[in-house]
């Protein structure tokens, strides 16, 4: 652009405008130069100050200015100039005026104040210091597709108001001026288009612009020339599309804007660019030579060739610009399209190297990973790209395909032989395989093992550099170094790379991208022999890069409470000096994780690289610790990611609970709370609350989670107004240990005043009359009062108050029959804390809001009774009771004496068959006693064996025998009541317990229907026993003076002795006796005594069923007792009793002395009534002696007759009364024959006359 001088003198409009501008400037100068002729400030009167010149003052930049401040009715000392609150120095002109003078001030706009310091009134003047508007800069224009013309420029911001105008010339004439738009503080712009006024002229080659800027200080006029077609920016091409695709090119078509074809005479240039997807950087595009394209075509076609890759995605962009434009900013925006080139088969196979296989050896085969370097993605050239691998072994071929879901870097031979193999690898897609293939030779197993590389170590650095070292192997050709992205399985799942190194190398430094971690392998090669890939297991990384897979193993020994031994071992052999030490770091673990609970770790450094263990102490009990290992190498500390171990120390005694508080103190309870110990040192199983060191409460901890919470325990059952010293212990149940109990940590507290405990009944005293009592056991307070409650007969209670422990009063006043006394203690509470007391700030006592006195009475004691009946009545009552007692004692003595005399003259008579033969009288020790009168009437005892007899027994004898029966541990003796006519009631015998009886029998009450039968008259008894029996008749018994004896009956069918006559139609009812025990009620004859001569014992034959053979039955029913000579009593014991090992067969005696006694239940008048009992074994319906009865038959025979075998002795007491009835119990089990135990417990028989032992 050029500045131009334009002559406006030939136009009327220009002259008029210049005249108006001059007039305005003249007017402004006149106003500024007029003197101040007013006595007030800007038209406001009575301000007492004024500024001259008045109003706004405009000063040209570079000139000086002055201001005058005039005071009215004040002096110059009372006025001053200020600006922005600060006083400006000024000079005094006269007594009422001061002057402010500024020489060549900077451009500014400020307000100056003339202030009266006494009245504080002000007058202002605004001063503007500025210059003529400055020239604009950066004037430029741009035409957008020849549709809009925009011009912009920068004008320095003036301090005064500025007016701007812009216009351009057409054919030498200026178009109507336009007012520019202010974009910001300094930038302005103006725009014209095809429909604006003035209109945009699209065909003009050059534009001439005129710009005018005017202010009160003057005007600035500038002119600019613009080359129109060089500032045109076209719109982007349109309708870009691909007409045809090729493997290495595309055929394109597009259009350019119409204005560029129709209005731009110079035409356009093209720019064509493309970018290869996934290869080129996103900001990088490759350029194509498009200079052959014509400048003015509406539609363009172009064949883009030399695209490098088939089946590849490309982005193509096209730009245009005016050929006259020279700046890059006038290129149009681009239009673009995405295209794919056509696919083809891969152009080459993958690269591979010697030793590019990894093998794992087994017993009969090996598994081999075959690796190669993958083609780049842009080289795949088609869809479904993969690799085809053919393995040639001898004459066998095996084809494998790389699995795209796993990796395209390898294939696996699962069961490869140990022999050599040739491997061929092709690249392949849907269009086919590559023309050539890569070859890999896998040597036999022996050749691979001979070249193994040892101590392959990797050192990684933060900048992505890796230092690799290994132990060299002699006589090889070279090494192949492989690497790929790190993988914990040591398999190159990603792209594998390799380089070949010379044979003399033992170290290699390689730099790789820092973004990834890499793993390395190496193979040693010698001709066709190769070791295959050997991975670097000694992987040492730079600081801040954890080492994965480094062969270090950490372990620990058995931990203690505060110590543990840490061990570590390395299987990697490093070069001497690489490792200089070890750093052990440990910290408590967070719960059950492998994360430290704290940020700070404890470090222990071991400077000896050969030391492989350390004992760590000062640990916390029952705490899990994590231990890690770092290697100190020549390259710095290296953290080993997999080298760590954790363990838990054993439990120890916990510390004491903390923050113990006592709240809510009452008279009988309080709340104690605490937090768990800071150092639990294990699992807290319980908490123990102690009072003065004694355990009072145990709080069990149910689970571990609850042990972390604060506990609140309400202690109840306390005593009021009592001192307590409470402490809490934490206990570990696993080691049975509790925290130390420190008396100084106990919390002292006294409970509140409460009611006293219940007192004992008061003691009533006479002559003088008073009552006394003892204080309550638990006072509950200070015992301020005792209350006495007296109740006379049924009258209301009288309450008497006292503070003493006794009280005098008169009993039985007012003629009452009786009165009671009760006492209780009473506590009064007027303490602000209700009597509670403490000396510890952790015990919270609540101050009472109640101002009065609280009363706490205790319970009333048990009453004490006072009988107010006259003493004369009591004396008479005692005398009468004494007389009746003496009469009763005398009557009883006389009755017993008569009974004794009557019993002394009674001689026992046994039924026939139970007597001793006359020839055996010599064995009895008592002489002069001869029971030869066989015709005497049977006694009442013998009548028990008869079917229809009534038995009477005196009450005295019953009582006597009951007393005697109570003294035996083996048998129970029961006397028949004189009021009883029924069968004798069975009492439970202690011998039943020893006879293995499992039945429990009911005891039937004695019937009292028939009573008052005189037991002293035998005749009366027999006369009343006339009820006919269905089992016996008169011929069955031999009559004696006092009764009948049942005769033995031999069954004509069986030949055995039976208990009743044959042919009985109704069998006897089941007895209520135990199936395992039998009882015999026998009337005893006069005393039987033992003799010095023992009868021979002959074993009688017995049937297997327990029946007695006729030849075995003695005619003992008619036995006679001979005269017995007196002799000494023979002692006997268990050793003298007969022993029966088994039944059957039964033991036989010499005289076949087995008898049969009829059971009382078989007699009609002695049957038990029907009752609900335990079912018993039904007796034999034939009445024969059962197997178990054989035992008692033998023993009864020995007892009654004195016959015994060997050392066996009769056990019947010679002094037994004839009125006594003996009940014998025996076990039907021969092994449990309780006769032995009976005799074993009897030291000797009492031979006194009236003594009865049974």
UniProtKB/TrEMBL annotation:
SUPFAM superfamilies tied to this protein: Fibronectin type III
One Pfam short name: fn3
Any one of the GO CC terms: membrane
InterPro entries: FN3_dom, FN3_sf, Ig-like_fold, RTP_Phos/Ushers
The species this protein was found in: Bombyx mori
Start-end of Low complexity biased regions: 989-998
UniProt keyword annotations, A-Z: Membrane, Transmembrane, Transmembrane helix
Record field: compositional bias (Polar residues): 952-980, 1017-1032
PANTHER family xref list: CYTOKINE RECEPTOR
Region (Disordered): 952-1032
All residue ranges annotated as the Fibronectin type-III domain in the record: 656-754
Protein name: Fibronectin type-III domain-containing protein
UniProt KW Transmembrane keyword: yes
This protein's record includes keyword Hydrolase: no
Taxonomic lineage from the root: Eukaryota, Metazoa, Ecdysozoa, Arthropoda, Hexapoda
TM region positions: 21-40, 874-894
